[in-house]
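Query structure, 354 tokens:
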């Protein structure tokens, strides 16, 4: 049992604790403070390279993949790397404002970029037939419908900061390494699950119209700001015993640390959501223009088809009229000899010949 826990501890990221010899976060430490974590590094490297391999396969067979989506994926993996290996990961347990930076990177920045990269669409275009069918089955399953149901993910995005910081749950994640890493995984999940149906790049079980997407984003903005204001104005420190246990003699005071954390939650959340709303508005206009052009092309095709049918009908009518008239005369038993005028003309012609 102890051996297995030791192996798990090696895989999990290192978490600073009161009593550890903490290198002060000052000066160049912001730049040079990097530590590799197998638990976070292996998944990031694997999924990052898997995406790029899929793009390479598409280009190899002659298919195109938008460059901006690849760039968005690289940025998403970059944000995950910063949150997992840089000073943000090293000091997230030491300084509350650093934790809040990590929180916003995992939930907002990485979530937006991963959703923009359309990884599900890339999988559907590159998987062999059988795995392709499996993925479609998963996407249409009730589990996927629940996990990506927009009202549910919006509710989770709004509620979880209120369930985390004012309660003792956050301090528990500081004291328990596994719970701390589960919290990070949850932040990544909720960010991706919220922004994928909002941005609408990947196929989802429930596709939302643009007004509903804008509404859901708008609804989340005041709650992040409200939670940030609560943290900034709180008289009692969040996880007070934990943070005071470091007995820091460097950096800002614990009170200012918490004030900065609240401001980061407020400002970063609102700025990200405002950027997403702006992108959605532009996307809405472009989709409307694209739909208008599609309707115009359809109407032009219908008008051209109607004109061709009219021209064909006119040509057919003019071509078949003499034959149709003769057929009518025969069908009525018409004979030239029975027509007095035609008979007189025929007699006169014979007399002239004689």
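Result returned for the query:
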């Amino acid at each position: 049992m102890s051996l297995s826990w030791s192996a798990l501890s090696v895989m999990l990221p290192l978490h600073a604790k009161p009593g550890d010899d903490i290198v002060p976060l000052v000066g160049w430490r912001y730049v040079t403070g990097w530590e590799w974590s197998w638990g976070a590094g292996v998944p990031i490297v694997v999924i990052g390279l898997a995406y790029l391999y899929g793009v390479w396969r598409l280009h190899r067979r002659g298919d195109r993949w938008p460059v901006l989506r690849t760039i968005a994926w690289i940025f998403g993996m970059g944000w995950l790397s910063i949150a997992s290996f840089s000073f943000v990961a090293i000091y997230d347990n030491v300084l509350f404002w650093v934790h809040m930076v990590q929180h916003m990177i995992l939930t907002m920045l990485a979530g937006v970029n991963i959703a923009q990269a359309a990884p599900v669409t890339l999988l559907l275009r590159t998987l062999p037939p059988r795995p392709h069918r499996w993925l479609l089955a998963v996407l249409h399953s009730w589990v996927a419908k629940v996990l990506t149901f927009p009202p549910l993910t919006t509710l989770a995005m709004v509620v979880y900061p209120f369930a985390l910081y004012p309660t003792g749950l956050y301090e528990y994640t500081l004291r328990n390494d596994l719970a701390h890493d589960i919290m990070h995984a949850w932040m990544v999940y909720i960010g991706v699950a919220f922004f994928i149906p909002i941005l609408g790049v990947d196929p989802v079980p429930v596709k939302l119209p643009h007004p509903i997407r804008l509404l859901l984003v708008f609804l989340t903005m005041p709650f992040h700001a409200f939670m940030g204001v609560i943290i900034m104005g709180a008289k009692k420190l969040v996880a007070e015993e934990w943070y005071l246990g470091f007995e820091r003699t460097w950096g800002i005071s614990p009170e200012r640390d918490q004030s900065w954390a609240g401001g980061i939650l407020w400002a970063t959340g609102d700025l990200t959501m405002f950027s997403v709303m702006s992108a959605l508005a532009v996307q809405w206009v472009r989709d409307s223009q694209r739909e208008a052009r599609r309707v115009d092309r359809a109407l032009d095709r219908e008008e051209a088809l109607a004109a061709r049918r009219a021209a064909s009908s006119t040509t057919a009518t003019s071509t078949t009229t003499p034959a149709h008239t003769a057929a009518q005369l025969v069908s009525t038993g018409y004979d030239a000899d029975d027509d007095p005028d035609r008979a007189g003309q025929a007699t006169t012609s014979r007399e002239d010949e004689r």
